[in-house]
Amino acid sequence: MSISTALVLGGGGARAAYQIGVLKALVQFYPRNHNVPFDIICGTSAGAINATSLATHASCFHLGIKKLDWVWRHFETHQVYRASIAQVLRHLGKMAIKGLQDDKVNPDAGSLLDNQPLRHLLNKLIDFKRIDRNIGNKALKAVSIDCSCYNNSRSYSFYQGN
To answer: Fewer Cβ atoms within 10 Å of its own Cβ: the N or the C terminal residue of the chain?
Structure first.
């Protein structure tokens, strides 16, 4: 029976930024070009962003931490949601129109803020194909992500492994 080591990263924006500080301290104990020291990486919400990014860089722990550190150092609110008064009013207007539709036409609940910028940021930062490659190259056994959908209040879990 082989024993696996897992890294579990919790949710919460500030907590996710704190995680990078801890990982930066940990990476100093590993040589360059070393795989992540975890067989399995798990994350929830903002921790899922960190976990997914680490999984894409599982073949080089130093590079993964360096990239995440850069992201969190340059992170700004407008990268997560649109918050100007005009943008919020426009988004709320769209939500009001959706609210008038029959539930069968539009079953999603609305949200106060438009979080499209977060989708764009994640698509720019994360190359999901690298996760499959890292699992195939045995740099990582598995990655597991838990998140909530703002539109329907449901929790979703994603898992990828060998």
So the answer is: N
